[in-house]
Design goal:
By secondary structure, the chain is an alpha/beta fold. The protein is built from twelve helices and twelve strands. Helix 3 packs parallel to helix 4 (about 95-105). The protein is globular and about 65 Å long. The structure holds 4'-deoxy-4'-aminopyridoxal-5'-phosphate (PMP). 4'-deoxy-4'-aminopyridoxal-5'-phosphate binds near residues 97 and 173.
């Protein structure tokens, strides 16, 4: 079986599983306890923070461990909320964990702007400029779209922010970018950056929020004061150590080059049929494909014994009105679309075979229509 839904989740590295086991079974102490073994675990967490900060290219700031990107996004947004006449800015292409939190701010009576996407799948930078002002408290923007692979130019956004909304924090949902495309938070100008371990071969249920300046953020979970008071609750030590292992064993640049060539080999296989449209928006890790004349879900189910492909964000319905694709492509392309997402450990043989299976299933389904 060839797995091509890596934007949904990825298989854990064997080494990360071993590391998980070590910290779940042998070195299982609560890092907040006062005896020597526990203090050692606490310093291991400190080392993991350092590894993440280095990979993020941060020269200052902190890493707050969380239960994953949904929580990191909630902490970034709700933690930035202030009373009074502040404004909040999001793109119309955000993951539901950001979009729903934005809607919650709206329901509470805040001024919230949703900036539409351009045809390239990126935020419309001109429209962004129009909504920013002195009262903007937060701009929250996805780095790489989990639906389309479009890459937002975060550096451009941070320079627009510096010019028009100097008091605003910039939060970036980097789930589909971290360990996949090279960047540094310093260079991007991000104040807050979300990551999730299960998208880069770590475990599910663990992630982090990079926080440039802790003073800008308030906690949304109350308790024992772990994670500098920003996220109470005993840390998921095994998960964090496995996440660290994964980060240390990913060569982002080499993987990106490999995935570029996998994508090329895969698309070569589908070339020549004008009813198959590949929507390439940026990151080679994620492509949206339309198989015109066949419902995406029907195709996905037809091939699933041999090839697993996605139907977009697991948290959204791709068919009944996809909030993001609707802004970019016509309706008939949306209903016939699937999401194919790669990891760097696939082989060319895998992706060529996957292309053949998809082509063949598509042909068979068209004959039945
Ligand atoms: N943001 C993006 C861009 C995502 O792709 C995902 C996962 N689909 C999330 C947030 C949520 O991540 P998690 O599963 O860690 O809560």
């Amino acid at each position: 079986m060839i797995y091509l839904d890596n934007a949904g989740t990825t298989p854990m590295f064997e080494g990360a599983v071993e590391e998980y086991k070590k910290y779940a079974c042998d070195v299982f102490y609560n890092p907040s306890a006062g005896y020597g073994e526990a203090i050692k675990v606490s310093s291991e967490l400190g080392a993991a923070r350092k590894v993440l900060l280095d990979k993020l290219g941060a020269v200052k700031g902190d890493v707050i461990f969380t239960s994953g990107a949904t929580e990191s996004n909630n902490l970034a947004i709700q933690g930035s909320e202030r009373s009074g006449k502040w404004e909040y800015v999001f793109s119309a292409g955000e993951h539901p964990s950001v979009n729903s939190t934005a809607n919650n701010l709206l329901q509470k009576g805040h001024i919230v702007h949703f900036v539409p996407l351009g045809k390239d799948g990126q935020i419309d930078y001109n429209k962004l400029e129009k909504v920013l002002n002195e009262k903007t408290r937060l701009i929250s923007l996805i780095h790489v779209s989990n639906e389309t692979g479009a890459i937002n130019d975060i550096k451009r956004v941070s320079s627009i922010r510096d010019r028009l909304a100097p008091k605003a924090l910039l939060h970036v949902d980097g789930v589909q970018a971290f360990c996949k495309i090279p960047f540094s938070v310093e260079d991007l100008g991000a104040d807050l950056y979300t990551i999730s371990a299960h998208k880069f071969h770590g475990p599910k249920g663990v992630g982090a929020l990079y926080v440039k300046n802790r003073n800008g953020l308030k906690n949304i979970v109350f308790g024992g004061g772990q994670e500098s008071g920003l996220r109470s609750g005993t840390e998921n030590v095994a998960g964090i150590m496995a996440m660290k292992w994964a980060v240390q064993h990913i060569d982002t640049k080499a993987n990106l080059a490999k995935v570029q060539s996998l994508k090329k080999a895969f698309l070569n296989e589908l070339e020549g049929d004008c009813r198959i449209k590949a929507l390439e928006f940026g990151s080679p890790y994620i492509i949206s494909l339309s198989f015109m004349g066949v419902k995406g879900e029907t195709l996905m189910r037809a091939v699933e014994n041999e090839v697993i492909i996605g139907t977009g964000s697991a948290c959204s319905t791709r068919y009944a009105g996809n909030r993001i694709l609707e802004q970019l492509i016509p309706h008939d392309l949306i209903t016939s679309s699937v999401r194919v997402s790669f990891n760097a450990y696939l082989t060319e043989e895998d992706v060529v075979r996957a292309g053949q299976v998809l082509k063949c299933a598509f042909k068979n389904l068209l004959e039945k229509v």
